[in-house]
What does this fold into?
Amino acid sequence: MSARSGSDRFLVGTTDHMMGGPTIEAEVLAPIADVAFFDTRDEAAFGLERLAGVDALMVWGAPLGQRSIAQLARCRAVVRYGVGYEKIDVAALAEAGISFANNPDYGTEEVADHAVAMILSLQRRLWEHDHRARGYSRSWQANTLSPLYRFRGATVGVVGAGRIGTAVVNRLKPFGYRTLVFDPYQPPGHEKAIGYWSAPWKVVLADVGLRAFGGCRECPGRSRARRRSSPSCGR
It folds into this structure.
């Protein structure tokens, strides 16, 4: 990738952003590049001139299809901020000779931490305790909720034992949960190395009270669960 004619600086486009704008990106790239912020997730609003002028493109949540890729005359690299890239036409990028990269380790610990925190909160009904305690006139012990289940021996189901799913499994171990995992892409024995019980999809749905979605390419309903990690119910 070479700088534009008459300039020693590159131009990096950012389609959209979750946290206001690409301030950090602009600071990091400042020595070698300027950042053009499209500020839209509407692919039709990217603009032909803006697409034609960028040397590289960073994509947050916007789609990037064949029509837009055909306008990337100078672009030599497209980078997806997060893990999933189902909205990116990778085949069209390859055909155009444009390199593509995602960030497989993005949010692994943060998502797993949050998922487990929600699981623990749901099972011990902390959200309900918090809400009710605001109106208690006596101690919380006189207002104990029932039923209230122990962690040890309770069953949790995890769909997808990738980075996030495995991180969830590891975080649940000290609490004594029995963890069922559905992931047809993991090799036999993976469950023994990590420490979970491998189970079919229907068993995970039928036999557990808490479910965490960690991402799996062949999981039913994967459009919702593919890059998400959250408990769905408590028992």
Remarks:
- The first strand starts at residue 10 and ends at 14.
- The beta strands are 10-14, 33-37, 56-59, 77-80, 99-101, 155-159, 178-182, 197-198, 210-213.
- The domain at 10-101 is CATH 3.40.50.720 (Rossmann fold).
